[in-house]
Design a protein that fits this description.
alpha+beta; de novo design (two linked rop proteins); 6-stranded antiparallel β-sheet; 13 strands
């Protein structure tokens, strides 16, 4: 009798535990999905330290990795050799006998520029190109792997089962191994579209940022890389179907456990209700923080515009003093650019208008100076013009990033039930900067090729 009671208690404990685990998995996946939805996508050339999303094309930095199957150029490559085995009940499973891979730093490039990505062999890449390579031998696969996580030793006692019907030598095709075997190659090729979500960190030189799976202190941080666009990444890392499945399994197991625990059947409804109540509380807390984070991202994006505008406003008086009388009739344009020196630390309608007016004036100033050959030949003018164009590009990026943040915040405060929490938190939509101009491309060289370094004065 005691044995039966202990068995029942063990089963119930397993049901409760597995139900809790599936509920936690569902919560984690929901939080991931929220992060994909709420984080604005940055231009590759304008990523700032912190959590960022980038979408672009893979570009090799140095000599790329080659795939074993066809020699394709890759930046990440892995292979697994697996053997099928069956237990005493006849259930089959695949056991990895050998695995290895190679990874190299690469660039994600889009219309604005590129950002460096540090990747190692431990990183997984959803939606990567998978190919069967059973026609290859272990001797052909191993040279392409820099790191081996598992190594198969033909003829060893542990692999005797796999050798019963063949020699399984390293130089013979895997398809000829005794028993059931398979070999799969996964790769991320140069030229493929990728979507990365990671905490950007400063490079050791401190002059740029890069994406990596650890921060500057060496601590592990968010790093998710997948082939495709944002929708493909969202589906790969936080599938909506999987969220619903985990939540349903959790409720089902909790109901079964409650039915077997209470003879009166009260726990059949009580335990699932408690689970739903706990999940609802966690959701409310998460949604509250989600609304506040959306507002903070909008304020952060506005601060990028504010800083770039202030730097640009400091450059204009220098340009005016160097150019002198040549731009005397353009004083109204210069004053409009300088007028956006401080647009305020928080977004406002007046600040939005000041940024828009200053941007339009800056574009006209650049056009006026570029139309004067005599000015373009002066080193100081060329240097200041380069600075002005670069800062104008930063403001243009800041506007796009800010508008993206504002649109995501507007979705939060307009959709039920987040709108209720937004009212409680007193979160309001932020004003958009409309009539976006195309960003100014910075010169290829700094200072431009053919000009000597700027002189004092």
């Amino acid at each position: 009798m005691r044995c039966v009671v202990a068995t029942v208690a063990g089963v119930l404990f397993f049901l409760f535990g597995f139900s809790a685990v599936t509920a936690v998995v569902a919560v984690v996946l929901v939080r991931k999905r929220w992060r994909f939805t709420d984080t604005p996508t940055s231009d590759a050339a304008h990523v700032f330290p912190g959590l960022s999303e980038v979408h672009g094309v893979v570009e090799a930095i140095s000599t790329p990795v080659t795939a074993a199957s066809d020699g394709a150029e890759c930046v990440w490559w892995q292979y697994k050799v697996q053997r099928q085995e069956k237990d005493h009940k006849g259930n089959s499973r695949w056991v990895t006998e050998e695995a290895g891979g190679t990874a190299a730093p690469f660039l994600i490039r889009d219309h604005s520029g590129a950002i460096r990505v540090i990747i190692d062999e431990k990183v997984s890449v959803p939606n990567a190109d998978d190919r069967d390579v059973e026609h290859l031998s272990l001797a052909q696969l191993r040279p392409h792997a820099r790191v081996m996580s598992e190594t198969y030793e033909p003829g060893s006692l542990g692999n005797l089962f796999g050798n019963l019907f063949g020699r399984n030598e390293v130089d013979e095709p895997i398809s000829e191994f005794g028993g059931q075997w398979r070999a799969i190659e996964s790769r991320l090729c140069v030229g493929q579209q990728v979507f990365a979500t990671a905490h950007a960190r400063l490079t050791p030189a401190g002059d740029s940022v890069e994406l990596a799976n650890n921060d500057a202190a060496g601590k592990s941080c968010t790093f998710e890389l997948s082939v495709g666009d944002e929708d493909a990444a969202k589906s790969a890392h936080s599938s909506g179907f999987l969220i619903v499945l985990m939540a349903g399994v959790s409720l089902l197991l909790m109901g079964i456990a409650g039915n077997n625990t209470d003879e009166g059947g009260k726990l059949v409804w009580l335990l699932p209700l408690l689970l739903v109540g706990a999940a609802g509380l966690v959701w409310v807390i998460g949604a509250w923080n989600r609304v506040l984070r959306s507002r903070e991202r909008g304020h952060f994006a506005w601060s990028l515009i504010d800083v770039a505008c202030e730097q640009r406003s400091l450059t204009v008086p220098q340009l005016e003093s160097v150019v002198g009388a040549a731009l005397a009739h353009e004083r109204s344009l210069l004053e409009a650019v300088a007028g956006a020196r401080n647009v305020g630390r928080t977004p406002s309608t007046s600040g939005v208008q000041a940024v828009h007016t200053a941007d339009a004036a800056a574009v006209q100033v650049i056009a006026r100076v570029e139309a004067m050959p005599s000015l373009n030949t002066q080193p100081n003018v060329a240097h200041l013009m380069t600075q002005l164009i670069v800062l104008n590009d930063r403001v243009a990026f800041g506007r796009r990033f800010y508008n993206d943040s504002c649109e995501r915040l507007a979705n939060r405060v307009s959709q039920f039930p987040d709108s209720l929490l937004a009212r409680l938190a007193r979160v309001q939509p932020l004003p958009l900067i409309t009539d976006l101009d195309a960003p100014q491309n910075p010169p290829a060289a700094f200072p431009p090729a053919g000009f000597p370094p700027p002189t004092a004065g």
